[in-house]
Here is the input.
Amino acid sequence: MQKVCVWVAVMALAASCAPAALADENSSGLYAGASVGVADVRADGYANVDYYGFDQTHAAWKIFTGIRPMDPLGLEAEFIDFGNPSTGSAYSYSRASSDAKAGALFVVGYLPMPLPLLDAFAKVGVARLDQNTTVDYPTACAAGHGCAQYFGVLKQDVWTTAVAYGGGVQAKFGPLAVRAEYERISGNSGQPDIISVGGSWTF
Here is the structure.
C-alpha cells in the first residue's frame, strides 16, 4: 500500500508541474528513455528446499524504446534490472539473495485524457525473466557454541517466459515526456514488480 501511495503521489506531482504551453499534442513517433525506481523481488523456493518468505525491495532501473504509430496505440520494448536484494534470514536459513532481470515487449494503449499535456496508459505483453537465487546455510552447531561459518550454498537460476502488465501516466514537455508507472511480471518464479519514474525523448 505504501508503494502504491508513493506512485500516486509522483503521478500527481508530474501532472501538476507540466505547463500547458510546453505540451505537444502530436506525440506519435519513435522514442527512447530510462527510469529508476524501487522493485519488489520474491523467490519461490527450490523443489526440495523450503525457504519461502523471501520478499525484499531494492533499487531498480530500466531502459526502454518504443513507437507510437497512432495516438491510442503503441509498442514498447524494455530491459528491467530489478536489483539484487538480500536478507540475513530467509525462513529457517541464514542468508539469501536474488538477482532478477527481464526483457519485455508490450502493447501500449493510451487512454483519452481531457488535458492534451497528459497521457494515461496501460500495457500488456510478454517478458523473459532471469532470476538467480542463492541461499547460504550454516554448519550444525555443537551445544554452547555459535555458528560463524557458512558452508552450504544452494543456487537456482530460472528462466521464465511470462505475461507482463502495467500502467502509468506521463506529462509531455514537447518531445520530452516524464512518466511514472507500475509494472509486474506474472510468472511462476517470484513475480517481481517495479514502481519507477523516468523520462523519454520522442525523435
Summary: The radius of gyration is 20 Å. The beta strands are 29-42, 55-70, 73-81, 86-87, 95-111, 118-138, 150-173, 176-186, 193-202.
